[in-house]
Design goal:
The protein is of the alpha/beta class. The protein has helices at 30-42, 68-80, 94-104, 111-122, 126-141, 144-147, 173-202, 219-227, 270-275, 281-284, 300-314, 337-345, 361-374, 388-396, 418-425; strands at 2-3, 10-21, 47-57, 85-88, 107-110, 208-213, 244-249, 255-260, 288-294, 322-327, 350-352, 377-384, 400-405, 409-416. It is built from 15 helices and 14 strands. Helix 5 runs antiparallel to helix 7 (173-202).
Length: 427
Amino acid sequence: MTQDPSGEAPAERALVLHPDILNDPDRRPAGPRLEEAVALAAALPGLDIVGSAVVALRAPQPGTLFGSGKVEELKARIEADEVGLVLIDGPVTPVQQRNLEKEWGVKLLDRTGLILEIFADRAATREGVLQVELAALSYQRTRLVRAWTHLERQRGGLGFVGGPGETQIEADRRAIDEAITRIRRQLEKVVKTRALHRASRAKVPFPVVALVGYTNAGKSTLFNRLTGAEVLAKDMLFATLDPTMRGVTLTTGQKVILSDTVGFISDLPTQLVAAFRATLEEVLSADLIVHVRDISHTETEEQAEDVEAILHELGVTDDTPRIEVWNKIDLVPADVRPTLDTLASRRPDVQTLSAWTGEGMDDLVAAITEALDGARSETSLDLAFSEGKKHAWLHEQNVVTNERQGDAGWTIDVRWTARQRDAFERL
């Protein structure tokens, strides 16, 4: 182990491995995948990443993932580099994990376990902490075969999420189920509170604009640029976790509520998708979705596909208006930039910009305003004089374009968003 620069605790020496399964029909280039895995590991404090490698496999071995020769080869490297933690960028079964830990004499985390550790480290709100705990318990429940056999080892990844020997919830499956039930009840209370806040915002005459995108695409930097807020924005995967919302008046005069959500990632653990569904419900109720892409990334198209897949899994439909932001154009090579600009000009839903330098921000703000205006529909309502509350609400929302008074009530022409229409129908 090496001493952490802060001097507070020794850093765990870690080796990052990406299994490149040659017969995988969904196989992607191994180089960028390994880079992302290393970036994930770097996002977790307390690690000293001493090496990384792509390990080519024709097919995963049921007992050890890797073949016997590769297991021996990696063991020699682990011992030579004094590695204490191996991070495998992919799924590892409980049996494979147990066998590799025994063979190598190290702790081992797969991709799901690593992402859970990062989320546990970043969760700041009560809801975020509960969601991570729920996801971690659901994940651990599938690994009882391995974890329950050596409680004395005090294992549990790096200790953020917790594990055997710490909370003792792993004593048996029933204890895990009871803990999951308890956390779900606590989450229900938090979700109800969030629903009340959402209902309150529905009464405010401002549309909601949700920023979504792959982790590290620049959402928080864009959020800060638009709102003047100081949300943590770093060149790091999952720099922010809990959602942030701000009311802002755009330079066009349009008032909106801007929501910055957690970044997505390929192979996001299903436990986390389910656990953070309540948080991401802000996206479901948004009037406009702004999909932020790191257009300078070598796998920007694949990342965009991953984001769309997760949005679909969350229940977001194509009915919600969208703008696609090609961010980080300041990092695009000069000889590539003209081609990129030409491609973007052919798509009315695309805006190119740099949230870091501010280039292209005015065009984005104008596009947001135009999209929100385009998302409005016109209709005519007949209200009786006894429906004074609804009459007042429409004027508060500033959606009335014309009003006529008759013997029995008002005939009101309105121009509103689908969100405002739904809120009106709930009055």
